[in-house]
Every structure is written in structure tokens, then in C-alpha cells.
Fold this protein.
Amino acid sequence: DAGVTQSPTHLIKTRGQQVTLRCSPKSGHDTVSWYQQALGQGPQFIFQYYEEEERQRGNFPDRFSGHQFPNYSSELNVNALLLGDSALYLCASSLQGAPNSPLHFGNGTRLTVT
Amino acid sequence: AQTVTQSQPEMSVQEAETVTLSCTYDTSESNYYLFWYKQPPSRQMILVIRQEAYKQQNATENRFSVNFQKAAKSFSLKISDSQLGDTAMYFCAFRNNNNAGNMLTFGGGTRLMVKP
């Protein structure tokens, strides 16, 4: 049973560029959340997707957008990259309507903006 | 909005000994979950233990247990018989159970080093 998979594992971009990160949820999960983890800090919630719609959003600018596909996989897009966007981006999946179901995290994508 | 505070940036413990990691939180909600996650160098967040706020009994998972003090809004993690593999970042996290979302609010983390 595959867990949460993220790609790529590492990425280097230049300021002003755009980036797309990908996530496949754990088998049986239908909800995907994205988190940004700056170096030495705890993860910060970006947004959550369920039924191909953004359901919740954290305090992140519109440069951060996402998408969920019919197979429940998800993409995180960041436009006009800033140096401060350098971080580990974590994807987590869960089952909607099951509060006892814990989040399952992927290994993350390390984004470096130069 | 909820906040989670971990006041110990780093801790160390000798192998086989016991260590306690602290966490406090602030919320006006009454129905919520609290979690401890472990993040080893592999970067994956691994759930260690969770506590439902409505349960008075403290959660335990093998060598891991919590001391949940709801009135004090405190949620500490005790690791007994520490092992080298317990070396990692530990994050305390809060989840409001009053909506359909799964948003977690994390603390800043505690880096735990288990010494042989």
C-alpha cells in the first residue's frame, strides 16, 4: 500500500519563476493538504483540497494556488517566486469526514529559490 | 486563531533514560485534537501519539505517553527508555474538530538528541 508520494524531491528555481509540485495521496484518501516548512520551523498550513475544490486556506498570498484531480492527486503552484519561498513543502492526505483518521505525510519537496 | 508553543528548542537524553517534551497551546475551542509528530532526517512527518480533548485519560503508545492538562492547555510528551532512533525533531500540533477540515497548527519544534 503506497503512502503519500511527492515529486520532485528537490528543486532549484530562480526568483520570479514559477514552480509546480505534485502529490499523490495514500490509497483510500480523498483529501490533500499542503504545508510549507521553513528551515528550523514548524510546518505552516497553505490550503486543503477536497472534491477538486479548495476548502480551507491559510495565510498565504494568491501566488500560491493549487489543483486537485479526479484521482485525488494534487498540485501546488507558486508564481513569481521569492527568496522567502525557499522551504520544504509537505503534502498530507486524509479521509474527509473521518476525524479520527490521522494525516499521512509525504517526504516533501525541498524548494530552493536563488 | 490557535497557537502552539514549544519552549524547548533542543533537548538531549541518554539512551534508556526518560525525557519529557513540553507543549502549550491557546484556543477558545472545546472540541479538538492534539498530536505529537516526529520528523527524522528523512523529512517525513510521522504520527507519534494523539489525544482527543474530550478524553480525560492520557494517551499512551508503547514507550510514548502524554500528560494532557486541558485547563492549563498543556500537552507534554514523555518518552521512556529512549532509543537512538528517537533522535529527531518533535512537533506538537493542534486540530480543531469543529469543522470539516484537517488543518493542523504546529509548534516550532523541539530537536531531541538521544546519546549513546
Observations:
- The first strand of chain A starts at residue 5 and ends at 7.
